[in-house]
């Protein structure tokens, strides 16, 4: 009976949770009659949530719930490569530090994110989830999480309308009609939505933890805005050393090439590659393309980053000069209008254009669509635009994240570093005023209640994230002697660097 029920739910779910007005009421009627009149199915006692389209909310919306078993196998495999998250579960599970927390999460719904979600639930949290990008969801991961009982609203290839629908749905999907009391965000869309449209939800909210450079920029802008400003404490997870120096650099160094190769099958060796920006993401991308044999040109606005690129062996020039030379273009800046019409018109035939910053505004996709003579979709996330000058531009992932749109994103291990920071940030926000918890766990002992502002995780937590990953890469750590510790003026157990130290 249980197996039959699983098959029924897998078949029925896509029909009973429509994301748009295009859903056919006639189809609904036929399926409803089939389920309710068939004698075998009558005995299954199908839960009402799968037979309603009304408030309070759909309990999930994914592409195909039958992919759950596939997703579960990959989640179990990923757990072996995510030691930080698994160690965090083991350390805090008995304490249940997130019991009573209601976390609304908006972050790429991948296999690695599934391990993050299940870590948070294992620590006591109730979650609802959406993806922060219309192309980044891995449908089998979303199915596995939905099947586990977490309200998840995400599928690969959402429209903008469907994306916004998902954000709205997750806000009303908590049990008993309760509101969120924590936000876990990637890019700031969910944070912005709640602040602008549902500020009443923030009255009892402990705060926000933000994953990305783009989202952090938005948080600081909100903090400065006196009229429509930030209403809750926020933790800038992006600037944890174990996030930015690992996810942004080492993660992109592997996943960029993966995305380009899967999308185009192009040989990178011998090509001229242009990388816009030489921050942590840009550094990883430039290194990756160089290691594949490309001649890399970097564009920058910051003199320090430009100098870093130059002494790393890369040519640094303007995009106006680089555009006619480049055969592969990668934007990494988090800013808008990096590649515009002037640049497209100067590019050689079949130049490959992609973005690994957060939003699609780095590449002026609207200009391409408006000014190209025609566009041919080669395959999902690969479009070939015919320009008026007779040359072609190959655009990947519609200008959105190429590593997630055309591949599967960063490796599990590096995401374990990032996501362990997220878990610790959520605990820090939720338990900030819990003195007993701080006394028991020294790493949280100095946090204290947080006022509205943007914070980074304390160095002791940053170092703990690194510590949890050392065994997995066979690291043996040296230890200070008492004499050495006294000489340096450091505690033997750390932290070992000041907050202003640049790694």
From TrEMBL:
Residues 248-409 form the S-adenosyl-L-homocysteine hydrolase NAD binding domain. It catalyses: S-adenosyl-L-homocysteine + H2O = L-homocysteine + adenosine. Keywords: Hydrolase, NAD, One-carbon metabolism. Its cofactor is NAD(+). CDD domains: SAHH. Its EC number is 3.13.2.1. It is an enzyme of class 3 (hydrolase). InterPro entries: Adenosylhomocyst_ase-like_sf, Adenosylhomocysteinase-like, Ado_hCys_hydrolase_NAD-bd, NAD(P)-bd_dom_sf, S-Ado-L-homoCys_hydrolase_CS. GO terms for molecular function: adenosylhomocysteinase activity. One of its GO terms (cellular component) is cytosol. HAMAP family: AdoHcyase. PANTHER family: ADENOSYLHOMOCYSTEINASE. This is Adenosylhomocysteinase.
């Amino acid at each position: 009976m249980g197996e039959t029920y699983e098959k029924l739910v897998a078949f029925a779910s896509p029909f009973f949770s429509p994301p748009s007005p295009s859903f056919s009421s006639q189809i609904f009627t036929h399926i409803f009659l089939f389920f309710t009149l068939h004698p075998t199915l009558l005995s299954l006692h199908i839960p009402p949530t799968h037979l309603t389209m009304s408030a309070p909310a759909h309990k999930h919306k994914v592409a195909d719930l039958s992919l759950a078993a596939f997703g579960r196998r990959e989640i179990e495999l990923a757990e072996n490569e995510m030691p930080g998250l698994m160690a965090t579960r083991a350390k805090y599970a008995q304490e249940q530090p997130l019991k009573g927390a209601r976390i609304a999460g908006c972050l790429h719904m991948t296999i690695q994110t599934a391990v993050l979600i299940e870590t948070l639930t294992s620590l006591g949290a109730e979650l609802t989830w959406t993806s922060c990008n219309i192309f980044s969801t891995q449908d089998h991961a979303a199915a596995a999480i939905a099947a586990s009982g977490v309200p998840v609203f995400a599928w690969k290839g959402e429209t903008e309308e469907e994306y916004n629908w998902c954000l709205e749905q997750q806000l009303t999907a908590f049990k008993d009609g309760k509101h969120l009391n924590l936000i876990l965000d990637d890019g700031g869309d969910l944070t912005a939505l709640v602040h602008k449209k549902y500020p009443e939800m923030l009255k009892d909210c402990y705060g926000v933890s933000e994953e990305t450079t783009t989202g952090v920029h938005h948080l600081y802008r909100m903090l400065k805005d006196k009229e429509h400003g930030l209403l809750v404490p926020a933790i800038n997870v992006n600037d944890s050393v174990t996030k930015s120096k690992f996810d942004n650099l080492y993660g992109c160094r592997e996943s960029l090439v993966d995305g380009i190769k899967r999308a185009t099958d192009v040989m990178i060796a011998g090509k001229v590659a242009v990388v816009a920006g030489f921050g942590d993401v840009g550094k990883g991308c430039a290194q990756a393309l160089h290691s594949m044999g490309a001649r890399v040109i970097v564009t920058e606005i910051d003199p320090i980053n430009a100098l870093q690129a130059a002494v790393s062996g890369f040519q640094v020039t303007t995009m106006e000069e680089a555009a006619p030379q480049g055969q592969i273009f990668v934007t990494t800046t988090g800013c808008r209008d990096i590649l515009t019409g002037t640049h497209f018109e100067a590019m050689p035939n079949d130049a490959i254009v992609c973005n690994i910053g957060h939003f699609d505004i780095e590449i002026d996709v609207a200009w391409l669509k408006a000014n190209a003579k025609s566009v041919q979709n080669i395959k999902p996330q690969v479009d070939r635009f015919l320009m008026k000058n007779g040359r072609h531009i190959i655009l990947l992932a519609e200008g959105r994240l190429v590593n997630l749109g055309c591949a599967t994103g960063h490796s599990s291990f590096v995401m374990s570093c990032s996501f362990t920071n997220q878990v610790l940030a959520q605990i820090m926000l939720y338990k900030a005023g819990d003195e007993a918890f701080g006394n028991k766990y020294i790493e949280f002992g100095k946090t204290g209640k947080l006022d509205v502002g943007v914070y980074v995780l304390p160095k002791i937590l940053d170092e703990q994230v690194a510590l949890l990953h050392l065994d997995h890469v066979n690291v043996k750590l040296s230890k200070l002697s008492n004499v050495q510790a006294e000489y340096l003026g450091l505690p033997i157990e750390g932290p070992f660097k000041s907050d202003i130290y640049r790694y």
